[in-house]
Design the sequence.
């Protein structure tokens, strides 16, 4: 059990389970991008631990950049996505893999698609550590899914509750 602010969270995924999920994603990306040099585009803040571990497991050459968007306040998605930090590199003629820590409704990734629509990417793929299929609006294809989870609020391993819990090595679920 972990207490953050006014909420209690129970254990959900161990450090070893997360490591296995990340390794499986890295293996798929290594296979799919052999001979290519993709640009990993991380969505901050939540994806930083996931991307760090994923990059250590990639054997292909790759580049890295970040974009920062926000859609959550507390434990609820606000339905509106705000761009806080934009792209600092060109995506022209690059294979781009957008990496999220978690996709629930898909609103954030939808906003990223909107932001990237005028870029001349060679290819665009989406990857996520966690996906909530029960609330995902299915408006685009998620190419790399680490694990599907129920529609429950989770923290740890980069995921936060009002900025706390990102530093936890394991993932915890909001207790009912």
Sequence:
């Amino acid at each position: 059990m972990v207490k953050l602010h006014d909420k209690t969270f129970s254990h959900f995924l161990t450090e070893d389970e997360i490591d296995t999920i990340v390794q499986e994603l890295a293996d798929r990306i290594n296979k799919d991008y052999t001979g290519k040099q993709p640009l990993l585009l991380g969505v901050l803040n939540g994806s930083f631990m996931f991307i760090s571990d994923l990059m250590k497991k990639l054997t292909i050459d790759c580049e890295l950049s970040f974009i920062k968007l926000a859609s959550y306040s507390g434990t609820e998605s606000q339905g509106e996505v705000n761009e806080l930090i934009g792209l600092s590199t060109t995506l022209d003629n690059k294979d781009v893999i957008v990496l999220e820590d978690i996709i629930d409704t898909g609103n954030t990734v939808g906003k990223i698609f909107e932001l990237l629509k005028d870029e001349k990417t060679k290819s665009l793929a989406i990857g996520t550590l966690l996906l909530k299929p029960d609330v995902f609006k299915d408006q685009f294809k998620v190419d790399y899914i680490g694990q599907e989870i129920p529609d429950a609020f989770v923290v740890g391993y980069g995921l936060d509750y009002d900025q706390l819990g990102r530093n936890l090595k394991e993932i915890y679920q909001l207790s009912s």
